[in-house]
Amino acid sequence: MIRFVDVHKSYRVDGKDISALQPFNLDIADGEVFGIIGHSGAGKSTLIRLINLLERPSGGSVLIDEVDLTRLDDRALRDQRRHIGMIFQHFNLLSSQTVAANIAFPLRLAGSHDEEAIASRVAELLERVGLSAHRDKYPSQLSGGQKQRVGIARALANRPSILLCDEATSALDPQTTASVLELLAQINRDLKLTIVLITHEMDVVRRVCDRVAVLDAGRIVEHGSVADVFLHPKHETTRRFVDEALPEEAAGGAALYAHVPGRILRLSFRGEATWSPTLGRVTRETGVDFNILAGRIDRIKDLPYGQLTLAMQGEGTDRALGALRAAGIEVEEMTR
Amino acid sequence: MIAVLASALSSLFPNIDDWGELGKACIDTLLMLSGSLALTIVLGLPLGILLYLTGKGQLRQMPIFYAALSLLVNILRSIPFIILMIVLMPLTYVLVGTKLGIRGAIPPLVIGAAPFFARLVETALREVEQGVIEASQAMGATTWQIVRHVLLPEARPGLIAGVTVTAIALVGYTAMGGAIGAGGLGDLAYRYGYLSYKSDYMVVTVFLLIVLVQLLQMIGDRVVAHFSRH
Q1: Distance, in angstroms, between A170 CA and closest chain B CA?
Q2: ipTM above 0.90, yes or no
Q3: What is the Cα–Cα distance from B194 to B187, expressed in whole angstroms?
Q4: What is the pLDDT of residue B82?
Q5: Separation between Cα atoms, residue B160 and residue B228, nearest integer Å
Q6: What is the pLDDT of residues A85-132, one digit of tens each?
Q7: pTM higher than 0.90, yes or no?
Q8: Cβ–Cβ of A108/B149 closer than 8 Å?
Q9: Residues of chain A contacting B, Cβ within 8 Å
Q10: How far apart are alpha carbons B33 and B200 in whole angstroms?
């Protein structure tokens, strides 16, 4: 469990304290994938670096399994860091070393001299990230996605319980991003390790995260399960991030449907409700008519969800809304 | 064959009556160069690492220490080599027991070149990406491990280029040293070529120095290319 207690961070610039992170409390549970989303300058890269103390908090404590990192001496902190893997936007591999040597590096830093053990661990990690054929290449001979896979293998070498991802897919194209995210999700499942990732893309959060915190100008403005935050964003910043992931809705909202007769409803289906024919049954029973204005069916991590924007007409509309809600569908009426 | 070549050379450079002396001067220059270069690296590399580590925003930031060290390096670098050699004579005598010859030349050569090389080392280390250093810290590396396993290997091409530049600067210094009794090609050029008006000596020694510098640059570039293939 990673726990921030009253943590804040400010930098001293030209004799003045500039606040990077306002005081906050946050718990990240073991085995979850926790996303931190924010625009650049929101403080997310400072926040993720508090977890391995690459950045020291100006106040408060950072606890990992109840051990307060801020109270550790240098040696104990280095030991802790060996159990926290980290991957980076620009990979940060040693350009003078081969893929295998890069992956072996943290093992050597930890003091391992058993060449046989190192070689077999490296082979195992290469296998996991699908790069066995590239063990003797140098980083400059690899593509971006391959470099990040080396970064992931390196981060996993010392069998960490936490993996920190610093904008790990921001330098990659969409297809490579998808495959790297898939690899992260698989590692999370297989190794049960906690993943904390920072990103500025809602789509990354939607694909792999269980929970998310939204960071805006050094403040956590919203946090919760990805499905809650994604389907019912409360803060303005969150709404903008969600709109980026759902472009058709962002264009004009309710104003877009000003000329459409009937009441404009937005239905959200989650989990199993997505697959049952509730809408058809309710309209048959209540005799209402509807027209689909916009919609999508997708997944938030492993949870299927659907969102439909409807124009509904007929006397039974109120009854229909009640029946839909009773069937576990979230209904919002859009005012115009 | 050799006789033909020898007679051709002596007709081309009639004033050079002892080619053996020229050969010995060559060897002296090479000895001075290799001895002083080795010691310059031994002294300048740690000094450069220290400059880098204690600099602003680096791993072991120490502003006052850095400023003092930086000043010392700058002072040593601002003194012209020929003056440095004269100023250092008492120290040289204490260190190696003579002020003359190859041995007498080495202490001033090293003290003149080490600060220069240290700056080149500092610059080369600064070229290493900050992100790689951060990644190593995140992996729990000590400062020494970062120096040994990250900074030095990653900066290797820049460091080798620095050695090349320093070696060439040292060739110039050894020639200057010749003027005040260090021996070698500079000594020959000065005594025979300048003081005795035997310009043949000047031509031949300058030619040999050019060949030496070219060779050093070529070897340096080769080695850098070898290590920058990635």
Answers
A1: 15
A2: no
A3: 10
A4: 86
A5: 11
A6: 999 999 999 999 999 999 999 999 999 889 999 999 999 999 999 999
A7: no
A8: yes
A9: 52, 54, 77-82, 84, 86, 88, 90, 92-97, 105-106, 108-110, 138-141, 154, 158, 164
A10: 24
